[in-house]
Amino acid sequence: MSDSTTALMSCRNIEKTYVKGREKVNVLSGINLDVAEGEFLALMGPSGSGKTTLLNLMGGLDHPTSGEILMNGRALQDLSSNELARWRSENVGFIFQFYNLLPVLSARNNVALPLLLTNLSASQRKKKAMTALKIVGLEARAKHKPRELSGGQQQRVAIARAIVSDPKLIVCDEPTGDLDRATADEILDLLQALNRDFGKTIIMVTHDPKAAERAGRLLHLDKGQLVGELVS
Amino acid sequence: MIPLSLGRLTAANLFRHPTRTLLSFTSLAIAFLLFMLLNAITTAFSSGPSEGAVNRLVVDAKYSMTDNLPITYLQQIHALDGVASAASVSWFGGYYRDPKETFTTFSVNPREYFEILTDYDIAPEALARFEATRTGAVVSTALAEKYGWRVGDRVTLRGNIWPLADGSWDWEFEIVGTFTGNASQLSDTLFLLRQDYFDDAVISWAKNQVGFILLSVAKGHKPEDVASTIDALYENSSDPTRTASEDQYARQFVSQLGDIGLMSTAILSAVFFTILLLTGNTASQTFRERVPELAAMKTLGFTDASVAALVLGEAVVLCLAGGACGITIAFVMEPALNDSIGAVLGGLEMNMASALIGLALAAGIGVLIGVQPAWSAKRLSITDALRE
Whole-model pTM? Predict the structure, then answer.
């Protein structure tokens, strides 16, 4: 994927350095990467290779130390914290390994949470949340609190929350890392369906080779650098 | 199911740990109930003089309010230039039926007393009956209503300071009239008997003395000049006097108990400081538990400020709810409190100004409690929090 004119997101010469005391830790260096619209991209690599850091940068959760991240021509590194928050709410859905649902809210209200940042009415928010839950097959569990759901069901709620605002990009950090094989496959089926049927662009960090097989493209990171690419 | 809103989110977060929230809520409610009660007590003790009280003086024993004055002082003071009228007033004490059924009881000179205390309203025929009936007593309307007394009823008060000449303690009076008063709530609980009857009937060692003398200053005379004249007159006697305005006298009376305002402030400061520490600690603990959730909210697009506002808002809502509950309970308890201890304090009144100050204080405590967790929420790094 090198044609940046058709890319949804482009990373140019990305560097990320953390300072720990007097020591500087270079987590990412020289990352150049384009992600096409509608692509399903997997990032793999050993622990500490910089996968999650790269995912965070592409999801607008953090700023690079240097370099440029463009999404639809907009430079994320130049956005302020508030601008970046707004950009995330409009463009990105997040799925985490441990779901990160609010335990005090029902499944439906967890899904409706990002919609509080929109101008939608309460009834519109409710309708959209129910639609998202229907897509992930959890319409019947709308009133259940996260603790009343299995791990797989919680991850489905998290996926519904990620798609409820209809973002172009979905970033997933180890989405199956806390699930058994069968449930993990169901979640991966769902992600593939979102990519295939709804045209969502997905970037997924995983340690799981079987999960990575579902992606259209697989990138390997090691010691903060892209070291390999496999296109299926 | 109620749709999600910021209010619903706040409520859901507050009830994350129902027991913890209930304990914080209860401690806040009790603190603000105490706030209202102490404010009412302070107000009762520090209420200013009535309009008519400006020209009234109280002549009391110089060294102690518990000392009496010779009854001869009354005529001497009445005869002084600048004194329009003078009445003796003596604390009777006693109780009705049960030691818990107490009210303010004075022996007085009927006509002069009501001439001076123009804030009290008594019908001429009632005053005439009071003057004509040696064992007569007039009572405030509220007191008569409380015990269902009617004119003509005979009431026995059990003395606890003054025995009768035969050594018994049961003083019998005939209710001859009622009066109303707008000077203070003290007038709601007054029972007045005649000084001359008291002096005749009381045991010999208590005769010919009065508690204090109440007087009104004649027009054209300055109260402070009249007071100086009286005190100078008795300066070298065995019973020197201290003459003060009615308001000053009331304050001196209260000051025997100590500085009520200072005591009240000290108690409330200790209570609110403790509340601040306890509830603040709870808020910080709750925040630490919620770090991953707050990070997730930021991930979804909630700004640093909105997450901080949510955390701060929860603390303020909790404190306002607890405060409002305590203040409401104080208003609900007001009649019962007045029935039990109102007579002693001259009436307790929960006022709206105190309630509004209480609510503002509750909001302020909420801000103080919430500001640190809110600041931490604002500064929370998403990537750091998600890594934890």
Answer: 0.70
Domain that holds residue A149: 40-60+89-231
Contact B383 A85 (CB under 8 A): no
Q: Could you say which of B5, B9, B301 has the minimum Cβ distance to residue A88?
A: B301
In-domain check, residue A49 = yes
Q: Is residue A16 part of a domain?
A: no
Count: domains in chain A: 1
Structure ipTM: 0.91
Chain A residues with beta carbon closer than 8 angstroms to that of B383: 53, 56, 61-62
Residue A138 lies in a domain: yes
Say if CB A224 and CB A50 are below 8 A apart: yes
Contacts 24+ apart (CB under 8 A), B356-360: B357/B39, B358/B32, B358/B35, B358/B36, B358/B39, B358/B323, B358/B326, B358/B327, B359/B320, B359/B323, B359/B324, B359/B327
**Contact between chains at B3 and A161 (C-beta distance less than 8 A):** no
Chain segment B116-140, per-residue pLDDT in tens: 988 889 999 999 999 999 999 999 9
Q: CATH number for the domain including A150? A: 3.40.50.300
Contact (CB<8Å) A88/B299:
yes
Flag whether A212 is in a domain.
Answer: yes
SS in 3 state form for chain A? CCCHHHEEEEEEEEEEEEEECCEEEEEEEEEEEEEECCCEEEEECCCCCCHHHHHHHHCCCCCCCEEEEEECCEEHHHCCHHHHHHHHHHHEEEECCCCCCCCCCCHHHHHHHHHHHCCCCHHHHHHHHHHHHHHCCCHHHCCCCHHHCCHHHHHHHHHHHHHCCCCCEEEEECCCCCCCHHHHHHHHHHHHHHHHHHCCEEEEECCCHHHHHCCCEEEEEECCEEEEEEEC
